[in-house]
Structure formats: C-alpha cells, structure tokens
Amino acid sequence: MYNVAIVGAGPAGIFTALEIVKLRPDWKVVLVEKGEKIEARKCLLREGYAKCPSCKKCGLLCGWGGAGAFSDGKLTLTPDVGGHLVDYMERKKVEDLIDYSDKLYLKFGATEEVFGTDTKVFAEIEHAATLAELKLVYSPVRHLGTERSLDVLKNMQDYLAKHITILNNACAQNLIVECEQVKGVILDNGEKIMAEYIVIAPGREGADWLTKEFANHKIGMVNNAVDVGVRVELPAPVFEPITSKLYESKLIYHAPTFGDEVRTFCMNPNGEVVQENYSGIATVNGHSYADIKTKNTNFALLVSERFTEPFKEPIAYGQHIARLANMLAGGILVQRFGDLLDGRRSTPDRIKSSTIEPTLTCATPGDLSLVLPYRQLTSIKEMLFALDKIAPGTASRYTLLYGVEVKFYSARVKLTDKLETEGVKNLFAIGDGAGVTRGLIQASASGVHVARTICERG
Asked: Which residues lie across from 195 on neighbouring strands?
C-alpha cells in the first residue's frame, strides 16, 4: 500500500514526486511509467534509419521525461502560454508556482540564461506585429536545448530513484474506484497498485487512454480545442531578427476568411524537423539543440477549433487528419509553399531545386490540400502572409510545410481548484494529457500544486 501513486513520468508526474519527497520524505510513493529509463530511450530514426519503423512505444514520446525529454527544452515563464492553470487559481499563485518550478529546474542543472526579458526590444517587435494584425505574447523563455534537457531529467531521475519506487515499462490499464473514491490502479500485467492518492499525469501520449478510462468511471469531461496544422521550415536568417532577441516568438493571428485563431508554436532557431509516432500514427514536431546548429528554423502553425455538442472526440478528429497524410505519404508529407499556392504537388525534383534543404529527409513530397480541411489550410496560408510582413521571406515559394502537426490534448477533465476530479475523491489529473497544460513549465507547476494539496491532507 502506497501513500501516493503517480501515473506518468513526464514533467507533471516528476514534479509531483519531487515536491512530495521534499514535504513528506517518509511517505511511500510509486511512479508508474510505460516507457524506458531516460538513458535507455532511443529513436531509431535519429540513429540512422531511413524511415520511421513505427515502434509500438515511440522512444521520442514514451519514457522518463515524457514527450518533452527530446524536445528543445523551452521553459516559457509566463501563465499566458502553455496551459490553463489560471482557469483554476489566481494568476499570482500560478506565477509563484512557475517561479518555484523554474528554480527546481535550475537546481537540477538548467541553464541560467533567459531570453525575451528586454521589454524595450519586446515593444519594438510587438509594434511591428501589431501593424501586421498579429498579437505578440510576452513570454520569457529559458532554453535548455535537447542535450541539456536530457541531463536535467537524468539528474531528477537519479535523485528520485533514491526516495521513491519507479516502475518503468509498466502501463496503467484501469483505475480502481469504489464508492466515489479512488483506491488504486491496475497495470497491464494484472498487478494492482493500491494507494491513498492517485495522480494521473500521462501526457499527450496517454491522453486517449485517460479520456476513455475517465468516461468509464463517469468522470466529467469538457471538449478542448483541437489543434491541427503544419510545421514550417525556412532559412534561419528569415526569423533571425526576432529569434536572436526573443528566441521564441508566440504570435497569434485571427485569419480573416473564417476568423479562426492561428498561432505559432514551438519555434526552433537553427533546429531540425522530427517525426513522432503516436500509437502508429506519424506526426511532425521540431527540436533545437544547445550546441548543434542547422541552417534552418522551424515552427508549428496550429489552427484551433473548438467544437460544440454533440462532438466529443477531439483526439479522433486529429488522428483522422494525421492518418490521411500517412496514407498518402507513407509517413510525413512535405510541400513547398509555392507549390501549394499553385495547386500542384511537390515532387522530389522540386524539393531538390529549392533553396532550403529539408532536415527531415524521410518526408515524402506531396500535396497538403489533399489532407488538411479547406478551412484550416486557408487560415494557415493567411497566417504565412501575415508573418511575411514582420519576417520577410516567410511566404517564400521555397518555404517548406510538413504535415501534419496535431496536438492530441484530451477533452479537459472537470477539476476543482485543487486539480482533483469532480465526483471521485483523491484522484487528481494534471499535465498535458488531462487538457490542463500545454507545455513543460505549467505541467511541472501543476505537479507541484497537486503535491502540496495531497501533503496538506495527509
């Protein structure tokens, strides 16, 4: 019998464990993770495979550190980006949680430098963005880089291994709920983990499982927005005047034709485009490194759609679009912006004749208009032309668009201000998989918040 069982070793689960160990060092805590230890995680595509083998458990997504382990390690130090914690508590409290979590990253080896803190520089870029009908969100960023991010997470893993039980390659299958109170969790091998408190933090990889399992126990859910789009790759000098000052610019645009919100996400100066595998579905993402530089910059353009009743399957919607791209390309599809505007598919010869060399070499040239719905595609085109006003060259005919990028957020769980589920006592849901957060720092902060709540009750 454990005091606390945590499902998922992403930042939300890790920071839950770190805070409980600090506040209740005598408690028995178990952390269940379906992937490998961080030192055993690997991606065959990154190790030389010509094409993604679609591993049963994607090494980029599963394992200690979650999907963020192999990301470029950006900590966006503001409540305005990367989650919805301000919907559950006062803004000042969220700011304090973010600041506390940031200091924990520093304690375990994060870099000191923070980008985007010069308010005068921000105001200058904001002025140019406003003239282009773009909203620039103030978002200071601590950038670790993939290599340093792995080191920080390894340090956290080694520390926690001395204080709690960590079960790797163990997958949560079902919750045990009796009389409207959680009692434990059943693993895929049939083992029962009994605990007084259960914290569910499965990340995006486990969002589908969370949605189905919570539905089985009639735990309330509300629809989250569905984020579908492309990853843009262009020469680094195009965005260098912005990235050299802010590192990552969070830009929001309301596309005129349909009024949809389009936003930049996960900007990677001098980075590379990568493929991920969500349960057999290939999607695209981007990374950047602290010490390794490419000639390109990449970022996502995501169109947010919020559906109303009777729609209840945002994950299935995103999966359907991603499968279309996989069907046509056998994986990830890439198209030049000029070819998209001309209504023709990109070919290997057209890609080779471009001024940009793709960093995701396994992507198949094709036609995004056969994959993305007309509405989303129109909004993405309009966003590219708006960005071209503040970063000339963005709407170049050679700019590469990779498809598709989908963020598999679950329907958001109905939670109290303690992030406890409504209707089931002592069951907490946090992080990206619960639809509460959308980034490393707020996911970490949600873990700290829940840990403090549990420790106060104990």
From this structure: 2
Beta bridge partners of 81: none
Residue that is written with structure tokens 């506390």 in the block: 100
Residue 144 near residue 191, CB atoms below 8 Å: no
Q: Token pair of 429, please?
A: 């849901």
The answer to whether residues 410 and 280 touch, using CB atoms and an 8 Å cutoff, is no
Give CA angle at 244 (291, 234), nearest 5°. Answer: 80
Task: Name the burial class of residue 456, with classes exposed (0-12), middle (13-18) and buried (19+) by CB atoms within 10 angstroms of its CB.
Answer: exposed
Condensed to tens digits (0 to 9), the pLDDT of residues 416-450 reads: 999 999 989 999 999 988 889 988 999 999 999 99
Phi then psi for residue 360, to 5 deg, are -100, 90
List the CATH code of the domain at 2-112+140-221+412-457.
3.50.50.60
CA-nearest of 427, 436, 4, 34 to 205 is 34
Instruction: Please report the pLDDT score of residue 435 as a whole number.
Output: 85
pLDDT digits (tens, 9 = 90+) for 153-172: 999 999 999 999 999 999 99
First to last CA, the chain: 15
| Among 196, 202, 198, 216, CA closest to 170 | 202
- Cα–Cα distance between 389 and 382 in angstroms, integer? 11
**Three-state secondary structure call for residue 332:** coil
Rounded Cα gap, residues 147 and 108, in angstroms: 14
**How many beta carbons lie within 10 A of that of residue 425, not counting itself?**
12
Buried/exposed code over 311-323 (b: 16+ C-beta within 10 A; e: otherwise): eeebbebbbebbe
What distances in angstroms separate CA 194 from CA 7, 16, 30, 175, one per listed residue? 12, 18, 10, 10
C-alpha–C-alpha distance, residues 32 and 18, integer Å: 15
DSSP state of 436: S
In this prediction, residues 284-301 reach a mean pLDDT of 89
Hey, what amino acid is at 315?
I
Amino acid at the residue 453: T
User: Would you list the domain boundaries of the chain?
Assistant: 2-112+140-221+412-457, 226-407
Residue 425's SS3 state is strand
